Amino acid sequence: MCLSIPMQVAAIEGDGDFAWVERAGRRELVNMMLIGRQSLGTWVLTSLGLAKEVVDPEQLALIEEALAALAASLEGDYDASRYFSDLQPK
């Protein structure tokens, strides 16, 4: 299983088929051919060097929350009430 990670477009390479994306100090070159050229600052889901989907701010917040929950569980500090706000009773 591959986990797609949101990364932000930082620079366009050549004609836009590739872009440099960043997240938390990590920078990598990804193929943009599936989603096309994107504006600087756009968040995209990436996996194995490929940008797969443009992420809107609401999706980004939910993904970041899920990644934080995963990190907390790996550190042995998971508390279900702190994560997945979209699944919590209102």
Q: If helices are DSSP runs of H or I spanning 4 or more residues, what is the number of helices?
A: 1
> What is the ordering of alpha helices and beta strands?
EEEEEH
Distance between the termini: 32 Å
Low-confidence stretches: none
CATH topology: SH3 type barrels
For the biggest β-sheet, the strand order reads 3-2-1-4-5
Per CATH, which architecture? Roll
Shape: elongated
Rg, nearest Å? 15 Å
The figure for the number of domains is: 1
Counting helices, strands and paired strands, the structural category is alpha+beta
Largest sheet features? 5 strands, antiparallel
Q: What's the β-strand tally?
A: 5
**For the residues shown, what is the average pLDDT?**
91
Strand content: 35-45%
CATH class: Mainly Beta
User: How much helicity do the residues have?
Assistant: 10-25%
In short:
The protein is an alpha+beta fold and 90 residues long. It is 20% helix and 36% strand.
List the helices and strands and how they pair.
Layout: E1 5-13, E2 18-23, E3 26-31, E4 43-47, E5 50-55, H1 57-74
Antiparallel strand pairs: 1-2, 1-4, 2-3, 4-5
Protein name: HypC/HybG/HupF family hydrogenase formation chaperone
Family: Belongs to the HupF/HypC family.
InterPro entries: Hydrogenase_HupF/HypC
